[in-house]
Design brief:
9 helices; elongated; transcription cis-regulatory region binding; mainly alpha; Tetracycline Repressor, domain 2; 2 domains; Arc Repressor Mutant, subunit A
């Protein structure tokens, strides 16, 4: 492990992410990170900042990882298969990273949900969900009202996110196959994809 001046910002963030994934946000302390890195509190602080900045960095990295996962999807953008892969991938990400998911969308102690933090989340929403919804509409509803992509993206995201939250909390789905039931919800949304369209997005 790097010590002192050899410790990088990326190493601090990666160690913080590892502690958070294993034990939760409360376990991420400056003393713990310094011990894990074999360095001092002052070095950790100089690389990233205090705990709020560390949690912000982990939050931002988690959204980068989620967005990169979406960018790497194999099905062709604009197809039903792409939307099903997107929603299933989001659910799998939540299941595989429940504590990261909490930092991304919850309010763990020490994380300040300010405008800059919310902009990271909005950018991920645009890249993951609005891009996918717009491509699908271009392929299936090319003659549509202006501003249709964001409402469809929001419906797909909120449906998927809600199912993910319920699943993480231990609530079963109707068929006990949450991916199958999620796919059914997506299909229902796509029956009336313009139902919530507005001209404001």
């Amino acid at each position: 492990m790097a010590r002192g001046s050899e410790t990088t910002r990326e190493q601090v963030i990666e160690v913080a992410r590892g502690v958070l994934v294993a034990e939760g946000a409360d376990a991420v302390t400056m003393r713990r990170l310094a011990a894990e890195l074999g360095t001092s509190y002052q070095v950790v602080y100089s690389r990233v900042g205090a705990k709020p900045e560390v949690l912000r960095a982990v939050h931002d990295l988690a959204f980068e990882n989620l967005t990169a996962q979406v960018d790497a999807l194999d099905p062709t953008l604009g197809t039903d298969e792409h939307l099903h892969a997107l929603t299933a991938g989001y659910l799998r990400f939540a299941v595989a990273n429940p504590r990261l998911f909490e930092v991304m969308f919850g309010s763990p102690t020490g994380l300040v949900r300010d405008q800059a933090l919310q902009e990271v989340e909005r950018e991920s929403f645009r890249r993951c969900w609005v891009t996918a919804a717009r491509a699908w509409l271009d392929a299936h509803r090319p003659r549509r009202p202006a501003g249709s992509a964001a409402p469809l993206a929001w419906r797909l995201w909120t449906a998927t996110h809600g199912i993910a939250v319920l699943h993480l909390a231990g609530h079963g789905s109707p068929s006990s196959d949450v991916l199958r039931d999620l796919a059914g919800v997506v299909e229902l949304v796509l029956v009336e994809p313009l139902a919530a369209s507005t001209r404001s997005s």
